[in-house]
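User: I'm writing a tutorial on reading structure tokens. Could you give me a worked example: one chain, its sequence, then its tokens, then a sentence or two explaining what the tokens reveal?
Assistant: Sure. Here is the example chain.
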Amino acid sequence: MHEHATIVGAVAASEGLCALPGVATQDYWCNRAAAALARVRPPAVACLTIATVDDLGMVTQTEAVGVAYTPAPPRNGQEPPPGVSAGTPDLTELRRRWETMAGIGWRPPPGALSATAAWPIDAVQPHWRAGPLGRIWGAVHAQDLVVALAPLEVASPARCLLVEVGLLEPGARAEPHDAEALRVLAGLARRRVQMAFGAARTCPAHWLTTREQIVLDQLALGKSVKQIADDLGRSPHTIHDHVKSLHRKLHASSRGELLARALGHLEEAADARRAPGRRPGLRQSVERKPAGAGSTPASAGAWSARPARPPACRVYRHGDADAACAPARDPR
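And here are its predicted structure tokens:
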């Protein structure tokens, strides 16, 4: 029964992880990731932490923390029993403790900093309830824990993704299949973290604000700056400033590259800019040299490539932030 529920929860969790934005946000990226991971066996509270951890489980730097609660799904059309809800003092205290923690509360097994792994907490810390970890998770009445560690770099101390899922169902116990499901999900979450936050430690000032993420979502739907301004009740100038900030933070030189990064196609966008033989602003054209008098057999009928003139552009009135540079008719 529990194994089937874990499989269903793992599918829902993977869908939530795949739906995460391709770029980091200051307010809710980690919370959304934690909410997705908590679906593995609801009702549950999940904590996701990006931190630098050494072989002893000591934390030297904490980069980001996300905490979320996922209730149990309704059964037979009935509402689930009341539990911990998002935004309660319990979750606030849990977040505060993780943001200031000096250690993860258990020692990673040998090799844990080199490959993604997960365990029932009793497998790595049998007496966890009597220590700091028990006091932290006791605030949300967790019955048992499943923990996972996914290294973001191979080193010691290593920048890691730490996931802990507290099971809230009365009498719940973490099973090996719960740990295996969380190991797979932690591997997926690791790739999403590397995509959104990058391979190296970043500063929150480089992450998107909530308003910038909203504007980016609207751009991905194909809306213009004017349409977004009307929908959000802001001036086009304000929205245009958000767009410029998005280009700067995501290192995007075009609207297409901006949306590619937003959707997580970072490698594709980078490869497009580094494509060999490409010269921005020039198109490659070829023309056949006709065979004629004075031409040698080697050159007769040969092809030669030359850069064509850049296409002319129509001129738009000043201030039209959405006007694309449309090619005009080539006079040649």
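What the tokens reveal: Residues 2-204 form a domain with the Beta-Lactamase fold (CATH 3.30.450). The longest strand covers residues 59-70.
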